[in-house]
Specification:
This protein is an alpha/beta fold. The protein folds into two domains: 194 residues, 3-Layer(aba) Sandwich (Rossmann fold), CATH 3.40.50; 141 residues, NAD(P)-binding Rossmann-like Domain (Rossmann fold, 3-Layer(aba) Sandwich), CATH 3.40.50.720. The protein contains 18 helices and 14 strands. The strands form three sheets. Strands 3-2-1-4-5-6 form a six-stranded parallel sheet, with helices on both faces. A six-stranded parallel sheet has the order 11-10-9-12-13-14. The protein is elongated, with a radius of gyration of 24 Å. The N and C termini lie far apart (59 Å). The mean pLDDT is 96. The protein binds uridine-5'-diphosphate-xylopyranose (UDX). The site of uridine-5'-diphosphate-xylopyranose has 20 residues, from helix 9.
Length: 432
């Protein structure tokens, strides 16, 4: 099929590249002309494992195109995905300005039947607004359908998540729309859930909110483990083996960050409130998440006593491993808080340093983990990159001014760290 993706950000690029992989011809559009010029040369604005290769290969094979023109894309494509950003408007509510603009521009360019698919994460009832908008701006009598097809892609494993989804959610109002979408995703051979548009929109918000709730739940339990002397790893393994609970998203640590969970939770609370339901459970999930970071700072203070003038080597800047994304990254929050208390920060991240340099000042960015810990009073693990799991700790111990490791991701074995001679502090586990 011929497909247009409007919005060449994270979701748009991954969706576009993967739909090409499924045998379709895709045109990705963005209103940022510089981004499009770079993409035409195979230069990506983000790091996602495997994406650059996929895009470069399909540019060469002329199955993937980039353009700044919605008009051109609408003309060429049977299916038009809207994948523009839906940022926080400032009050928690999703800002749908971009979605509305794109919808009206699609509408003025509609000449024959098209399927307009909302891919961006949007609050329930956006589909109804999209339909009204397109109907308002359309010239003459042209048929169209609106579909909600939320994405569940995780940064760092987005291509594999797209190619092997647990389920595909399609919210439709007509059989024609359903048939086209089912055909599009047939090669994936995955379970397809067909619902109405509002249910599909809610599935996305509810799924992300539930996952965030799981994380805050286990983080709250980790606090009890800390006080009682239990081990959060053992507790979450014991809970996770119950099939009704499941093992995933039960890793205690610095809490969730990234471009989705914090924003989607706020947007879900906001739309629920607008509809007349005060989602207090989710307010609490947010509070637990925020408190994890101050909890870690308190642990650092407990170990160092005075933070002022101490050198802290931070490993990890991205919000999680395998991505260069620093949006709502606990690492950035921690660094800023420690700097406020007068600490000097050295930092290293395998991918996220360029982006971190834009938002952090007075940080010494280092070329490798060893340079970042050299001469420091404390090593702080803020992101659980694989690279940090394989460090030479004999060397690290020699480089540190004092052998103190504070691990916000629980990536090391406390017993081993103790044997190596470190003071080791982690979350919800006995220290060494
Ligand atoms: C998330 C959703 O998983 C995805 O379906 C949605 O489409 C976009 O948002 P992403 O933000 O890329 O994806 O990352 P994810 O792997 O879900 O992790 C989110 C955050 O939770 C990260 O900060 C991660 O470190 C944290 N996390 C995750 C935990 O603290 N503990 C866990 O057990 C799992």
């Amino acid at each position: 099929m011929n497909i247009a993706i409007i919005g060449s950000g994270y979701v748009g690029l991954v969706t576009g590249a993967c739909l090409v992989k499924l045998g379709n011809k895709v045109i990705c559009v963005d209103n940022d002309a510089k981004k499009i010029t770079a993409l035409k040369k195979g230069i990506l604005p983000i790091y996602e494992p495997g994406l650059e290769e996929l895009i470069k290969d399909n540019l060469k094979r002329k199955r993937l195109y980039f353009s700044s023109s919605i008009k051109e894309a609408v003309k060429a494509s049977e299916i038009i995905f809207i994948a523009v950003g839906t940022p926080d408007s400032g009050s928690g509510e999703a800002d749908l300005t971009g979605v509305e603009k794109v919808a009206s521009e699609i509408a003025v360019n509609l000449k024959e039947y098209r399927l307009i698919v909302e891919k961006s994460t949007v609050p329930v009832e956006t589909g109804a607004w999209l339909k009204k908008t397109v109907t308002t701006y359309i010239k003459g009598k042209v048929d169209f359908d609106i579909v909600s097809n939320p994405e569940f892609l995780r940064e760092g494993s987005a291509i594999s998540d797209f190619m092997h989804p647990d389920r595909i959610v399609i919210g439709v109002e007509s059989k024609r729309a359903k048939d086209i979408m089912v055909k599009l995703y047939k090669p994936l051979n995955a379970p397809v859930v067909v619902t109405n548009i509002k249910s599909a929109e809610l599935i996305k918000h509810a799924s992300n909110a539930f996952l965030a709730t799981k994380i805050s739940f286990i983080n709250a339990v980790s606090r009890i483990c800390d006080i009682a002397g239990a081990d959060i790893g053992e507790v979450s393994s014991g809970m996770g083996l119950d099939k009704r609970i499941g093992r995933s998203f039960l890793e205690a640590g610095l809490g969730y960050g990234g471009s989705c969970f914090p924003k989607d939770l706020d947007a879900f609370i906001s739309i629920a409130g607008k509809l007349g339901y005060g989602f207090r459970l989710l307010e609490e999930v947010k509070k637990v998440n925020e408190s994890q970071m101050s909890f870690l700072i308190a642990k650092i203070k407990d170990a160092l006593w005075i933070i002022k003038d101490k050198n802290i080597g931070v490993l990890g800047l991205s919000f999680k491993s395998d991505t260069d994304d620093i949006r709502h990254s606990p690492a950035i929050y921690l660094i800023k808080s420690l700097q406020k208390e007068g600490a000097f920060i050295k930092a290293y991240d395998p991918r996220a340093m360029e982006k971190a340099k834009v938002v952090l000042s007075d940080v010494k960015f280092c070329r490798n983990p060893y340079a970042a810990v050299s001469g420091c009073d404390c090593l702080l693990i803020a992101t659980g990159w694989d690279e940090f799991k394989k460090l030479d700790f004999v060397k690290i111990k020699k480089l540190l001014k004092r052998p103190l490791i504070v691990d916000g991701r629980n990536i090391y074995d406390p017993e081993k760290m103790g044997k190596l001679g470190f003071s080791y502090i982690s979350i919800g586990r006995k220290g060494a």
